[in-house]
Design a protein that fits this description.
CATH topology of the largest domain: Endonuclease - Pi-scei, Chain A, domain 1
Number of domains: 4
Structural class: alpha+beta
Shape: elongated
CATH architecture of the largest domain: Beta Complex
Helix content: 25-40%
Largest sheet: 6 strands, antiparallel
Number of helices: 10
Number of strands: 26
Low-confidence stretches: 1-9, 241-257
Mean pLDDT: 80
CATH class of the largest domain: Mainly Beta
């Protein structure tokens, strides 16, 4: 800054109009005005930071010696941390008051130090008392101006600092409340879960006790019945058996494909050509002069398949090995595979043998679905006896030997879950139809068709159909009508007659093992149909007939051997 200088006569005192230049006895004194704001701000910032850091580390020591340390720089700029608990105002008000106090104190100290210095000078130079006095007043004015300037510079910083600290305090308070709420929620959830667990355990304990009480009552009832009704127990058991048989379909139905081939299995025909098993039709003549009479189709989703010489076959299918028929799963060259097929097939052949072409162009012989030879009267009779005993839990002296496999005319009606009453030949694998015996809809897992004689009736069934009357399963002899449905009267030998027209009979495989059929001319409701077994007759448990059939055919090699 520029300064003004005046030459004066000895003994005179002169001041510039701005009070910043002074002269005495011709001696010139020049006061220069400078700007120290950046330096002051930097120093203050460092001082505040250091003060806050140090102040946090020694709060209790400072409070204990507050009167002596309150104006230390580090304490001055973090004095809000030292507010006594009994101070009525806020921490920030306390800091402001302390700042004012220390500012005044600093000014007074400076003044006293300067005054003391000049007083010493005056005491040594008593002749310059007047001059010193004037200088003292000038210094007081300068100090007052410096103080006002310092306060003016620091005021925005102090306000910003105060607002920032207040905002941080509010955020900290809000965060603390949020953490407390989260903690409360977690604790409440934990206690709720424990309460639910204890309630569940108590419920289970109560249920177990109730079950034990019921079992005790049942045991007591059984003992009483045994003691008082011992003579009539056989009759009671017979009635119970009849009731159980009425719902038997649910426990024996739904068989997965057992004796089936993948759709791309090649079958060797008598003329030397081949066809995929899925493309065979009634009348095709296979190697060995066996004629295709029909076909079983199944969903293959649950069928465990084996790879035997490049062909995929189910494990229970019988295959010729050297001198005997054995299950594919027991063949030394068969390998279990994980692959599944949407649909699998098993043809019905007149001589019960299926010639399959392997990848190496060799022939492997398998049995068809029916397995027992048509002319094995004794074997077919015993097979029917086994089925009767299984279905009715009793035996019969004279069993009917059906002429035909269980088949229905294409026009026989079933009740489709979505389409209502429809002909049986329109039903596909995966459809759901009504099963009146179990009063539910049952899924169709397979379909069957087989060549029969055209009877000229629209609605008919063969004598191989198992139907339920009064809780018992039976088959009808020919020349009968069952539930307004005629039973086929022609024999199988008539199929070969050129004078007889041929037709296809149909049957289904269901999940429940049973379903209900109708004669369309007599339908009133879905509840007045005839309940029949599906094409598997005995459902899932093939072991009931499997061992017996295997024993009957062991001595019957394939036709070409």
């Amino acid at each position: 800054m520029a300064s003004d200088t005046f030459e004066i006569s000895p003994g005179l005192k002169v001041f510039d109009t701005d009070g910043k230049n002074v002269a005495y006895d011709g001696i010139k004194y020049t006061m220069k005005q400078s700007t120290f704001i950046p330096l002051i701000v930097t120093i203050l910032g460092l001082t505040v930071g250091a003060g806050v850091l140090i102040g946090r580390l020694e709060v209790e020591q400072v409070r204990a010696d507050w009167g002596n340390r309150r104006c230390e720089p580090s304490v001055l700029f973090s004095s809000f941390l030292y507010k006594p608990p009994d101070y009525p105002a806020s921490a920030f008000k306390f800091a402001a008051n302390n700042f004012d106090f220390c500012s005044d104190k600093m000014v007074d100290d400076v003044f006293k130090r300067i005054a003391s210095m000049f007083t010493n000078i005056v005491s040594k130079q008593s002749s310059g008392i007047g001059v010193i006095h004037d200088i003292q007043k000038a210094l007081q004015r300068l100090i007052s101006i410096a103080k006002d300037s310092f306060v003016e510079i620091m005021d925005p910083f102090y306000k910003t600092y105060t607002a920032t600290v207040a905002q941080v305090a509010r955020i900290s308070h809000a965060l603390r409340r949020s953490i407390q709420r989260i903690n409360a929620i977690i604790v409440a959830t934990l206690y709720s879960g424990l309460s639910m667990l204890y309630a569940l355990l108590n419920s289970v304990d109560f249920i177990i006790k109730v079950i034990l009480i019921i079992l005790g009552i049942l045991v007591a009832i059984v003992l009483i019945l045994f003691l008082f009704f011992f003579p009539v127990i056989p009759g009671i058991l017979a009635v119970i058996s009849a009731l159980v048989i009425a719902g038997l379909g649910a426990s024996v139905g739904g068989m997965a494909a057992t004796f089936c081939f993948a759709n791309d299995t090649y079958i060797l025909l008598q003329d030397g050509t081949t066809k995929k098993v899925s493309e065979l039709i009634s009348g095709d003549v296979l190697l060995g002069h066996g004629t295709v009479q029909g076909m079983y189709r199944f969903t293959g989703e649950c069928s465990q398949m084996y790879n035997l010489y490049g062909n995929h076959v189910t494990g229970d299918h019988l295959v010729w090995k050297s001198t005997a028929w054995i299950p594919v799963s027991q063949h030394p060259d068969a390998v279990m595979i994980s692959e599944r097929h949407d649909t699998v097939y098993c043809p019905i052949i007149s001589n019960r043998c299926v010639p399959v072409l392997s990848l190496s162009n060799n022939i492997t012989w398998y049995r068809d679905w029916e397995e027992l030879d048509e002319d094995d009267e004794e074997g077919n009779k015993e097979y029917n006896n086994i089925c009767y005993r299984y279905l009715n839990k009793s035996s019969i002296d004279s069993i009917h030997i059906p002429i035909w496999s269980g088949l229905l005319s294409p026009s026989i009606i079933v009740y489709h879950k979505e389409k209502g009453f429809v002909p049986i030949n329109t039903i596909a694998i995966g459809d759901e139809i009504y099963d009146g015996l179990n009063n539910c809809y049952t899924k169709v897992n397979g379909t069957v068709y087989e060549t029969v004689v055209d009877t000229h009736y629209k609605y008919w069934m063969t004598d191989g159909i198992w139907y339920n009357i009064g809780g018992f399963w039976m088959q009808s002899t020919i020349n009968k009508t069952v539930h307004n449905i005629p039973v086929m009267t022609q024999s199988q030998s008539q199929v070969q007659s050129q004078s007889q027209l041929q037709s296809h009979g149909h049957h289904l495989i269901t999940s429940s093992g049973t379903y209900t059929i109708y004669n369309n001319d007599y339908i009133h409701t879905i509840h007045n149909g005839l309940h029949i077994r599906d094409a598997l007759e005995i459902g899932n448990d093939i072991k009931i007939t499997y061992d017996y059939v295997l024993s009957r055919i062991q001595s019957s090699p394939p036709p070409e051997l």
